[in-house]
Structure formats: structure tokens, C-alpha cells
Amino acid sequence: MVRVAKNYQDFALTYLINTIKNYKKTPQKYQKISEVVANYLTFAVLSIAFLTFLIHLIIGLLNSPLNFKDCIFPTISVLVIFCPCALGITIPLLLAITSMKANRKKIIINNPNLIDKISSIDTVVFDKTGTLTKNEIYFENLTCLDNNSLYFSILRSLEQKSQHPIAQSILNMLVNYPLVNITNFKEIFGVGVFGKYSDKEVAVISKEKATKRFSNLKIGNFNQEIFLIYDNRVVAGFDKKILFRKEAINCLHLLKKLKYNTYIITGDNNLYDEDIEKIVDRDNIFTKCLPEKKLSIVKSLRNQRNLNLIYVGDGINDILSLKEANISVGIGSRFDLASIQTDIVLVNNNLMNIIYVIFLLKRTKKFIIFSLTWSIVYNLIFALVASFGLIPPVFSGMIMIFSDIFLLIFALFLYFYRLKI
User: What's phi and psi for 126, nearest 5 deg?
Assistant: First the structure.
């Protein structure tokens, strides 16, 4: 028997297909600029061609007999030299190459207008759990009251409905314990999971939050970081072991070397990694943060400190902060692609790709600006030279073709250009 858990529109594959289609349809700033430039250039060259014909006609009439070839040939040369085709082709080609190079690195760019935003970015803010850390959060020192297997079954049943990264590790460890019926299930992001078993309240919550949320809580001899509470009594406890991604330190170190401000926001009590604390200033690490506090920090960085920032997160806890950031980046491993849309998605979870995409978008902007400048200057200079009758129509065609070929070859340089990180 097959059970369908989502609608077709909610599948990650559907999201990826629609993203590619929408990327092609999305009006892009530089593509619009190229169209505007092409329109103005067309008007300018037509004006030059008209003035060329008129001036040569007047000169011919003053120096009779009039030879229409002296009027027609310079005008034709001006019109032949100018061709907006290269401008209309090069910019979309550069954008397509950028998307292609990103896709090769398993990077999805949802917002093609990031090319303009990326230059102003000076700060990168990271969520910790699931972003800087591996998805596999392990737990240790698991004990329960009186070795009662029922408590393990309750713990497994609660975590089966949770979206927290630690849930899967608990489920893998407790796979041999039967599920029980949990009612009134509720997950409060950044706090814990709650429900009822046999009309008695059960919860998985950190020790610190448990003592604040439950009055007269009977803790007993449990001293672990996370509690399982049953009927206002701690019946099981465990500590979590967090493993940071191997590229996390390299990414943070390189961002610091590139003069980017780096911040880390976590809901945990501390960072759990001395090497990272050596790279990121202690004042830039925020702990014990619920989703609302994360949002408040991001707003403060943007509005009070006037920072333009990228926020990197991995799930529901980060959705408010992702929406508030100048550029949002989602880590693809746990990211629900179909329900939370970010500007960029790192499908392969490699944090070094954050730096790669920054370099790629900045490089693309430089290529686009050069292409626009080249097209304007090249066309106007040769159109003016041709207006004096110095370029025969035959050579005008060659000059026009050279401009097209040059810009197309220039676009290919971006394709073969290897970004060094």
C-alpha cells in the first residue's frame, strides 16, 4: 500500500522545476537595462545616420554636381555598423551562464536580481543548528526512571512528529520501542514538543526551559541537558552531541579574511566549539534565541547598525529572519523547498558555496557592466567615424560582425572562468 503525504505542488521536485521556469520568466534588472540601452542606441544611431545623410546632401549641393553615392554610402555604413543584437544576446547569455555555473555547484538561485544586491553585502549571519552543524545531532547519557521502557516509547512517539534535527537521531536510537498514542501534540519552535499520553501531559524540553515552564517539577537525580517530562515529573534525560560541518571553520575564516562581518545565532545555551569562537567575535554570537529574538537581532543589525546582510538558515525556526534579510540562503538538506522560498538554496549543504555564489554574482556584474560599456562606446565611435565617409559599407559589415563575435567570446570567458576560493 502506498500513502501519499503531500500534494504534487508541494513536492521538492515540482519546486525545482517551477524555479527553473520562473527564473527564465522573471524580469531581470540588467536585461531590462540592456533593452533600454539598445533602444537609446538605436535612436542615437538613426539620428547620426539621418544627420550624416543631411550633411553630405548639403555639402553635395554646395559643391555641385551632386553625387548621391557620397550621401548614401556613409549613411549605409552608419546603419550597418550599428547592431543591438550583441547587446540583446550577451546579457541574457551571461545570466544563463551564471545560473548554469551555480547549478553545477548544486546552488539554486531563485532571485536573478541578486546580481545588483550582492555588491552591497557586508555581513553574513548564520543560524547554528543544522546550518553550521551537521544534520545528524547525536545524543548521549540517555537514562530513564526505573528503566521503564514505556518512557522510551513516549519519547519516540513525541519525536516522531517533531521537525527538530535531534528528532531523527532519537528515532534511530529508539527504533525497537513501540509507538504509543500521543494526543494534543504541539511543537513550539525553540522551546520543545508537548502532548498528552493517557490524559497526562508529556513533553521533551531543555532543562533550563523546563524549570521555567513547569512549576513544582520533580527532577530527581536527572542532570542532563534535555528532559522527558511525564505528569510533571522528569522520567528520562539525555545530552546532545553536536558535530560541526568540516567546512564551517574554513567558511567563517575566509569570510573574515574577506572583511565580511560574521554573526552566529543559536537557540542553545552556548556554541560548543572553541575553534569557531576564536574566529567569530564573542559579541557577535547570540545564544538562547527563540525565532522572535532571531528576527529582532536581524532587524537590529539592518536598521540600527546599517548592515546589509545574508542570513543562512535551515528550516522553520529561521523563516522570519530569512524574510527580513537582504539576501536569504537556505541549506537544502533539511530545508522544505516547497514551503519556504529563499533567494538561494544550497542543495548540497556545502557552506563554502556561500562564498562561491558571492564571487560568481560579483564577477557576473563586472562582465555585464563591461558588455554594456563596450557596446555603447564601440557602436557610437564607429558610427561617428563612418558618418565622415571613412568606412566603406563592405567594411562596416565586418566591424559589426566583430562586435558581435567579441561580446559572445567575452561571455564565454565567464563560462570557463574558474573562481578561486
Answer: -115, 135
**CA 143, chain centre distance (Å):** 41
Query: Which cell is 388 given?
Result: 565622415
Per-residue model confidence (pLDDT) at position 16: 46
Edge-to-edge strand list for the sheet holding 107-109: 107-109, 344-346, 327-331, 309-313, 123-127, 261-265, 285-286
Residues 6+ apart with CB under 8 A from 327: 111, 114, 117, 118, 121, 309, 310, 311, 343, 344
| CA terminus-to-terminus distance, the chain | 49
Q: How far apart are CA 248 and CA 404, in angstroms?
A: 44
Global pTM value: 0.74
Q: Which three cell numbers stand for residue 133?
A: 552543524
Closest CA to 317 of 195, 203, 191, 209: 191
**Cα–Cα distance between 47 and 54 in angstroms, integer?**
10
> Rounded to the nearest 5 degrees, what angle is found at the Cα of 210, between the Cα atoms of 208 and 212?
80
pLDDT value for 12: 47
Residues 329/348, Cβ–Cβ less than 8 Å: no
**Helix count and strand count (H, E) for the chain:** 14, 13
Give average pLDDT by consecutive 10-residue segment, the chain, 421 residues: 53 48 54 76 85 88 78 89 73 86 90 86 91 78 89 92 78 89 88 92 91 89 92 91 86 94 87 80 89 92 92 84 92 57 87 94 90 84 88 87 85 83 68
Q: What is the bridge-based pairing of β-strands 344-346 and 107-109?
A: antiparallel
How far apart are the C-alpha atoms of 188 and 267, rounded to whole Å?
A: 12
Note the pLDDT of residue 268.
Answer: 77
Q: 3-state DSSP call for residue 196?
A: strand
185: CB partners within 8 A, 6+ apart: 158, 161, 193, 194, 195
Element (H, E) at 187: strand 183-188
SS3 175: coil
Q: Do you find a cis peptide bond into 393, omega within 30 degrees of 0?
A: no
How many other β-carbons are positioned within 10 Å of the β-carbon of residue 99? 19
